[in-house]
Amino acid sequence: MRITSLLSILSTVALASAESIPKTDYDVIVVGGGPAGLSALSGVSRVRRTALLFDSHHYRNDVTREMHDVIGNDGTPPAEFRGLAREQISRYPTAHWSNNTVTSITPISSGDLSSFTVADNTGKNYTARKIVLGTGLRDVLPNIPGLQEAFGKGIFWCPWCDGYEHRDQSFGILGSISDVLGSVLEAHTLFSDIIAFVNGTQDAQGEAAATAQHEGWEEQLKAWNVKIDNRTIERIERLQDGATHRNRTTDTQYDKFLIHFAEGAPIERGAFITNFASVQHSTLPRQMGLNVTDNKIDVTSAMRTSESGVFAIGDANSDGSTNVPHAMFSGKRAAVYIHVEMSREESASKVSKRDELLSRRELEKEAIRAIGDNLEPQWTRARKL
Ligand SMILES: Cc1cc2nc3c(=O)[nH]c(=O)nc-3n(C[C@H](O)[C@H](O)[C@H](O)COP(=O)(O)OP(=O)(O)OC[C@H]3O[C@@H](n4cnc5c(N)ncnc54)[C@H](O)[C@@H]3O)c2cc1C
Ligand SMILES: *[C@@H]1O[C@H](CO)[C@@H](O)[C@H](O)[C@H]1NC(C)=O
Ligand SMILES: *[C@@H]1O[C@H](CO)[C@@H](O)[C@H](O)[C@H]1NC(C)=O
Ligand SMILES: *[C@@H]1O[C@H](CO)[C@@H](O)[C@H](O)[C@H]1NC(C)=O
Ligand SMILES: *[C@@H]1O[C@H](CO)[C@@H](O)[C@H](O)[C@H]1NC(C)=O
Ligand SMILES: *[C@@H]1O[C@H](CO)[C@@H](O)[C@H](O)[C@H]1NC(C)=O
Ligand SMILES: *[C@@H]1O[C@H](CO)[C@@H](O)[C@H](O)[C@H]1NC(C)=O
């Protein structure tokens, strides 16, 4: 009697499971039209998943002249690169676009499988089974005259971005003393005349932070012949613009700056690298209650966040990698996992036999096995039937 009723409950649940694929406006909603979001949209569109991509047009590398170290597109302006991607992806009829800003993403509680309501700034709502956040990071620069305007144009954030175009020029490092050796280790193959402008951070606290990062940092800076200037920085003045003063044959850009201090003589430099903070561009990760560590959305190797059905890609995620190739890789990877996960859910829903009764966790594990990835020991999300 007990067993019979248990079986009947189980088969009811199995039937419920068979009916449980949520009906939504789109299979996937992607938030972000940078290289990460575009790559995710491409991946799901090519297997005819319906998808809507939101792009509010705030891109991290918008300020830079040209994008580098993206093979096949070395030196392409970022806007041109995104435009070409949009044009190519637009050929897929299941890909849809919105230039609006997403204001909230709310899980829909009915049913066993995840689905979401996405609201935009015009008050419209859309539903989807899976969410991809490619919402990026935002750089927080100190508010001194001349810095913001020059960011990405002779004052760069990574040596791979614009270092080569300024190679062998006089070079400055901006930011805390604790980050100076790190920048030197990345840039010494491009520059030999290096001054670190540490803006008063060379005190006991700053030096302790430097030692915590690199034991023996002071000796190493001496060995690389790096000078430290501890004066308070007042402003950065542009003397020459590398957008017009450049040699396209040699891939060289000749920017020139004067850095001014609260006291003493200014110093001329051809280029600077910065060590300033970056934060999540979007408030959505916090709003949604996703795990965020050190300003990065925690993800597994499959780009899954702490919320079932929500994936995070590109600069915004915790991969510890912030560049265009990573954005594209992580977007592609999320697209594959999402497609196979949805297919597994659909496959299970087509069969109503009791032994096909799979828990959500088993479904997701199946999805992972199906594409040969067993690298998810940290997988903990499970909503058992
Ligand atoms: C000055 C500078 C130069 C750089 N140069 C290079 C380089 O040469 N090579 C390189 O590989 N990398 C470079 N980078 C790094 C590169 O910019 C990033 O790695 C890359 O942009 C990350 O792509 P993403 O798609 O994650 O984010 P982003 O390109 O920043 O895109 C974020 C997207 O999310 C959208 N968005 C956010 N919130 C919402 C919302 N609520 N609703 C709708 N849309 C939303 C934005 O509008 C945007 O479309 C540079 C970075 C900087 C700062
Ligand atoms: C959305 O943005 C794209 C790319 O910037 C642009 O081509 C398109 O015209 C915009 N669409 C609308 C409806 O504004
Ligand atoms: C859109 O969704 C939000 C969040 O779920 C909800 O508060 C709002 O009422 C919805 N608006 C419409 C027009 O359905
Ligand atoms: C220099 O330090 C002052 C005081 O801490 C700070 O307000 C300013 O933003 C810093 N400037 C730069 C360029 O780091
Ligand atoms: C660097 O500047 C800070 C702030 O003005 C000061 O406290 C510190 O003593 C200076 N360090 C050196 C080595 O002069
Ligand atoms: C660019 O560099 C090449 C090689 O050094 C040189 O021959 C040429 O004159 C330079 N062009 C300009 C415009 O300076
Ligand atoms: C999210 O945070 C919780 C609580 O700290 C933790 O148990 C869980 O493993 C985290 N999940 C992910 C995917 O990081």
Automatic annotation (TrEMBL):
<keyword id="KW-0732">Signal</keyword>
<dbReference type="GO" id="GO:0016491">
    <property type="term" value="F:oxidoreductase activity"/>
</dbReference>
<keyword id="KW-0560">Oxidoreductase</keyword>
<feature type="domain" description="FAD/NAD(P)-binding">
    <location>
        <begin position="26"/>
        <end position="331"/>
    </location>
</feature>
<dbReference type="InterPro" id="IPR036188">
    <property type="entry name" value="FAD/NAD-bd_sf"/>
</dbReference>
<comment type="similarity">
    <text>Belongs to the class-II pyridine nucleotide-disulfide oxidoreductase family.</text>
</comment>
<keyword id="KW-0285">Flavoprotein</keyword>
<dbReference type="InterPro" id="IPR050097">
    <property type="entry name" value="Ferredoxin-NADP_redctase_2"/>
</dbReference>
<protein>
    <recommendedName>
        <fullName>FAD/NAD(P)-binding domain-containing protein</fullName>
    </recommendedName>
</protein>
<dbReference type="GO" id="GO:0097237">
    <property type="term" value="P:cellular response to toxic substance"/>
</dbReference>
<feature type="signal peptide">
    <location>
        <begin position="1"/>
        <end position="18"/>
    </location>
</feature>
<dbReference type="InterPro" id="IPR023753">
    <property type="entry name" value="FAD/NAD-binding_dom"/>
</dbReference>
<dbReference type="Pfam" id="PF07992">
    <property type="entry name" value="Pyr_redox_2"/>
</dbReference>
